[in-house]
Amino acid sequence: MREFGYERAHDVAGAVALLGTDPGARLLGGGTNLVDLMKAGVERPSLLIDVRELPLDEVRFSPEDGLRIGATVTNSDLAAHPEVRRHYPALSQALLAGASGQLRNMATVGGNLLQRTRCGYFADLAKPCNKRAPGTGCPARAGDHRNHAILGASEHCVATHPSDMAVALAAFDAVVSYETADGPGDLPVEEFYLPVGDTPHIETALPAGAVITGVTLPPAPAAAHSRYRKVRERASYAFAIGSVAAALDVRDGVVRDVRLAFGAVASRPWRARIAERALTGGPADGTAFAAAAEAELAAARPLPENGYKVTLMRNLVVAELTRLTEEAAR
Ligand SMILES: Cc1cc2nc3c(=O)[nH]c(=O)nc-3n(C[C@H](O)[C@H](O)[C@H](O)COP(=O)(O)OP(=O)(O)OC[C@H]3O[C@@H](n4cnc5c(N)ncnc54)[C@H](O)[C@@H]3O)c2cc1C
Ligand code: SF4
Q1: Average pLDDT, whole number, for the chain?
Q2: Which residues contact 95 (CB under 8 A, 6 or more apart)?
Q3: pTM beyond cutoff 0.85
Q4: How far apart are CA 131 and CA 123, in angstroms?
Q5: For a Cys staple, 245 with which of 105, 137, 171, 285, CB 3.0–4.6 Å?
Q6: Which residue, judged by its Cα, is nearest atom 8 of ligand 2?
Q7: Nearest ligand to the C-alpha of residue 79?
Q8: How many helices (H) and strands (E) does the chain have?
Q9: What are the pLDDT digits (tens) for 39-77?
Q10: Residue 276 and residue 279: Cα distance in Å, rounded?
Q11: Ligand 1 center–CA 255 separation, angstroms
Q12: Which of 42, 114, 167 to mutate to test ligand 1, by most ligand atoms within 8 A of the CB atom?
């Protein structure tokens, strides 16, 4: 491993200032992704700035303001938080579907948002990869792409975003807050992750030198009736090959409010707004759920080996919305 410096930041202003001292500096949350990539030689920071002791470890809920989550809250603590489980169950389920207990104890909200893709070529320095080394090519398109994107990809990259947590955040209109030397800023999750286009190496709209300070989920009554379902190749300790975060407010058989976001199908969490529009105000039944999913997935452009995801996602949407409808009827 190459040599690098290490500093621990004790307040946000200090972390921002340290970041400004060295263009090769990187923030260290739980280290569960960054350190792995350093071992592989993909990340080569000259300075690690440990943010784990920043005073950003609170979770607060109020009916007026919704849920405010500090950036250093661990994935375990967030999943177990009683207000999260009660008001945003899909968020808790998404977190618990990720990684393992040990990893969740280390992983932080800020780090989870910024974890890198699990495309095997990205972490393999012997292979070209436009995301890791811009302009070198994308071997996944003609190679192993079974788990890759079907929506919103480009000829330059077909990798998926691996975070389960971010899918639930996208469904609930979460906003990411950050601090830079020029002051604070906010980005809705849908604008936080950028479309892949011809710059797959630029994944987010987070300004250079920014420290993520937290995430806010606005009040959303439908979120209390929500589910996260993840399909993976093993029962645990595996990334999604398809997932859905779904919330439903249904009264007298009519959909009043619905939230849908897909995971593992695009370079970012995929908010299924076409399906949401198709469902709102209509009947809550399997025919409508299937039609809405198909309308959303009409834009899918699968590669030879990942067409199965279109059927998988359609079935996931129908199954989870049906289950939420049955729960509402009890
Ligand atoms: C074996 C294994 C299985 C996994 N399975 C899953 C899974 O199924 N689902 C899933 O969602 N995830 C999974 N993960 C990924 C895991 O959830 C992430 O590694 C973790 O969430 C990253 O958080 P961290 O705090 O450790 O980030 P770090 O590794 O510390 O950092 C990741 C990135 O975030 C940046 N960063 C950290 N904090 C901040 C901040 N406050 N502001 C700005 N930038 C910041 C870092 O500089 C770095 O670029 C798995 C990981 C492993 C190793
Ligand atoms: S899909 Fe993206 S991350 Fe994977 S090899 Fe292609 S460019 Fe690299």
Answers
A1: 97
A2: 75, 76, 78, 79, 104, 164, 165, 168
A3: yes
A4: 10
A5: 171
A6: 129
A7: 1
A8: 12, 12
A9: 999 999 999 999 999 999 999 999 999 999 999 999 999
A10: 5
A11: 36
A12: 114
